[in-house]
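testing teh design pipeline on a random one, pls ignore if ur not involved
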C-alpha cells in the first residue's frame, strides 16, 4: 500500500451483463475455496501471522473477543462457527468465553473499539481482542452489489472493486508492545441520506462523527497530518469525504493527504476499518507518516453508519 501497488485481477465471476469482474484476492486461498470456507481460510492466515513474541505477552482465553462482521442486511457468507478450533502460536485458543458480534459492516471496527473501551472500564480485563473478517469475493455479495449498481462493471464505471481481508487488533489501556497506536478520539453517527434515497446529501453523518472524534482528542481538523479512508471507488463516497473535511476545517493547512487502502486491495467490507488502524500503526512505526496525528474514516454507505477516529503514535 505504501508503494501504491494494486493487486487486481480477473475473478471467476461475471456481472449481470455476462462480462468478467475484477477484484483483489488473497493469492494463498484457492479460487475454488468459497463461502464460509473462504472466510475460515482468511481467519486462519491472520492467526498464523501473529508474532510468537507478541502472542506470549497476551492473556489468551481471558480477553473479551469482539468479532466484526458485515451488516446484517448485506448478502454473503456468514462467519458463525468458523473460528472454532483456531489456536494462536503457542497453542492457546483464539476465542475466549466472552464473545461479542459486531454487525455494522465498514464501521464495525470503530464500534468494536468503542465497546472494547467500555469493557476495559467496566470489567476486570487487561485487554480486548478485536477481529474483522470479510470477503466480497462471493457470488451472493457480488450479485447484491451489482443489483444496486454499486459494483464496477462493464456498464457501471462509478463503482467499487471487491476485495477480502482478515485483521486482528488488541485494545488495551496500556501499551503491550513497543510502537503501539494510541487512540485519541472516536466518533460514531448515522447518515440518513443514502445513494438509494432522495434526501439531500450534506455528509451530516460523517461530519458529525469526525467532529466528535476531534473533540475527544482535543484537536482541530487543521492539526491532522493525514487521513485514511475506506472509500473504494464510488464518487458518492469521495464527495462525502471532502464534505466532512470542509464541515470541520476552521483553518487552512498546506496539505492533508488521504490514503485509500482500497486503491490497492479493493473494498474489504467489515475488515476495511481495521486495515486503516493497521496501516496507521505501520506508518508511525516505520517513520513514513507525514505527521503525528491521523484521522480514520468509516462509512457504511447502504446502511447509514458513519465513524471516525483520531490516532497517534
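output:
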Amino acid at each position: 500500500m505504501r508503494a501504491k501497488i494494486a493487486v487486481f485481477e480477473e475473478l471467476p465471476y461475471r456481472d449481470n451483463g455476462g462480462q468478467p469482474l475484477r477484484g483483489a484476492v488473497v493469492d494463498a486461498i484457492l479460487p475454488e475455496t468459497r463461502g464460509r470456507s473462504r472466510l475460515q481460510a482468511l481467519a486462519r492466515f491472520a492467526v498464523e501471522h501473529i508474532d510468537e513474541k507478541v502472542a506470549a505477552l497476551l492473556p489468551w482465553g481471558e480477553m473479551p473477543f469482539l468479532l466484526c462482521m458485515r451488516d446484517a442486511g448485506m448478502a454473503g457468507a456468514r462467519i458463525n462457527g468458523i473460528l472454532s478450533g483456531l489456536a494462536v502460536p503457542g497453542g492457546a485458543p483464539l476465542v475466549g468465553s466472552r464473545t461479542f458480534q459486531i454487525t455494522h459492516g465498514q464501521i464495525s471496527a470503530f464500534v468494536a473499539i468503542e465497546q472494547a473501551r467500555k469493557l476495559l472500564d467496566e470489567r476486570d480485563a487487561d485487554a480486548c481482542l478485536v477481529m474483522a473478517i470479510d470477503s466480497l469475493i462471493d457470488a451472493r455479495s457480488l450479485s447484491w452489489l451489482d443489483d444496486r449498481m454499486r459494483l464496477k462493471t462493464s456498464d457501471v464505471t462509478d463503482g467499487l472493486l471487491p476485495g477480502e481481508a482478515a485483521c486482528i487488533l488488541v485494545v488495551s489501556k496500556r501499551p503491550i508492545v513497543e510502537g503501539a497506536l494510541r487512540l485519541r478520539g472516536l466518533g460514531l453517527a448515522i447518515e440518513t441520506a443514502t445513494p438509494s434515497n432522495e434526501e439531500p446529501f450534506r455528509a451530516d453523518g460523517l461530519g458529525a462523527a469526525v467532529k466528535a472524534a476531534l473533540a475527544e482528542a482535543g484537536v482541530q481538523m487543521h492539526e491532522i497530518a493525514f487521513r485514511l479512508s475506506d472509500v473504494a471507488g464510488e464518487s458518492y463516497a469521495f464527495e462525502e469525504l471532502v464534505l466532512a473535511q470542509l464541515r470541520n476545517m476552521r483553518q487552512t493547512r498546506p496539505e492533508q493527504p488521504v490514503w485509500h487502502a482500497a486503491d490497492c486491495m479493493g473494498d474489504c467490507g467489515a475488515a476495511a476499518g481495521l486495515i486503516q488502524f493497521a496501516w496507521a500503526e505501520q506508518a508511525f512505526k516505520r517513520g513514513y507518516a507525514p505527521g503525528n496525528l491521523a484521522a480514520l474514516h468509516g462509512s457504511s454507505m447502504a446502511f447509514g453508519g458513519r465513524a471516525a477516529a483520531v490516532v497517534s503514535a
